[in-house]
Amino acid sequence: MFKSTFHAHSRFDDGKEELEAYILEALKRDFKVFGFSGHAPVLFDSGWNMKQENFDQYVATAKALKEKYKGQIEIYTGLETDYYPGCTDWRKKKGIDYTIGAIHFLKHPDTGQYMPMDGNREEFEMSLEEGFDKDVQALVEAYYSQVREMLMKMTPNVVAHLDVIRKNNNNRDYFDEDDDWYRDEVMKTLEVISLTHTIVEVNTGGISRGYVKEPYPSRWILEACHDLDISVMVNSDTHHPSTIDCYFKESYELLKSIGFRSQRILYHDKWCDVGL
Ligand SMILES: [Zn+2]
Ligand SMILES: [Zn+2]
C-alpha cells in the first residue's frame, strides 16, 4: 500500500502538535509522502485559520523538514484555502506546492456575516435559519454554487471534502441525497471538476472526528467521478499525528471496489498517478 496524505493541520492552525511530530509518526506508519495543508489566513476572524504573521514560519518549517528527512519521506507544503468574495489567491505564493480549495463559509448577502457550512449541528441550524429562512435546498444549492465558482475562478489542485454539507445529515435529517435536485447539484459540480482537471479527495477527517461513518464524498459521487474520469486522492484531514491514516485501508478498498486503480498525487515533485 502506497501511503500518502496531503491534508494535515497542525499547531499553526487548528490542529495539534508541531509539524515534525506528524513526520515522525508518518515514518513509523510507512508513509512515502506527506503534505501539510494549514488553513490559509483569511481576511476575517475565523478562529481556526493560520494567522498571517505565522505564515512564513509555517513554510520555512515545512521546507526545513523536507531537507532533514530527504531520502526517508517526501514532504510537501500546501494550504487548505477558503474561497469567498474578495479572498486572497494563495496558489502562486512562494513556497506553496499545492492548494486544497474549500468552502467552509458562505457570506450572508445582507449582514456580511460568514456563515459556517461545515460546523456542528448548532452552527448548521444557525446558518440555515439566519441565512436561508430554514430552506435547506437553498443552502445546499448556495454551497455547491460557491464550490463551482471557486473551481472556475481560482481552480485549486484538489477540491476539499466535496459533500461536507452532509456532515450533519447522517439520518437524512435535512435532505435526501437521492432527491433529484441534490443529485443535479452534485453532477453539475462534477462537470466543472472534470473540465478544470481538479482532483477529488476522499477525506476521512469526518470519521476520525466522529461526525460521519463514511468518508467524503459519498460512494455514489465517487462512482460518478470514476465514470467522468476524475482523479482522486485519499486524505486524512488530520488534526493530530495519531490520525494521519485513519480509515485509509477501507478507503483504498472502497476506491478499488468502484474500479479506481490509482490515485493522483504529488510525487518526485510532479503530479502523477500511483497505484492503490
Ligand atoms: Zn476543510
Ligand atoms: Zn482540513
Bulk shape: globular
The CATH architecture is Alpha-Beta Barrel
Given as residue ranges, the uncertain stretches (5+ residues, pLDDT < 50) are none
Q: Over all CA atoms, what is the radius of gyration?
A: 18 Å
Domain module tally: 1
Helix/strand-derived category reads alpha/beta
**What small molecules are bound in this structure?**
zinc ion
Helix content: 25-40%
Per DSSP, what share of the residues sits in E-state strands of 2 or more residues? 15-25%
Number of helices: 8
State the order of secondary-structure elements, H for helix, E for strand. Answer: EHEHEEEEHHEHEHHEHEE
Number of strands: 11
Major β-sheet strand ordering: 1-2-3-4-7-8-9
Mean pLDDT: 96
CATH fold field value? TIM Barrel
Through-space gap between termini: 7 Å
Largest sheet: 7 strands, parallel
For the record, the CATH class is Alpha Beta
CATH superfamily: Metal-dependent hydrolases
Report on this structure.
This protein has 276 residues and is of the alpha/beta class. It has a single domain, classed as Metal-dependent hydrolases (TIM Barrel, Alpha-Beta Barrel). The chain has eight helices and eleven strands. The chain has helices at 19-28, 55-68, 121-132, 136-153, 180-196, 205-208, 219-227, 248-258, and strands at residues 3-5, 31-39, 74-82, 98-102, 105-107, 114-116, 158-159, 199-203, 232-235, 262-267, 270-275. A hairpin with a 2-residue loop joins β10 (262-267) and β11 (270-275). The structure holds zinc ion (2 copies). One zinc ion binds at residues 7, 9, 80, 237.
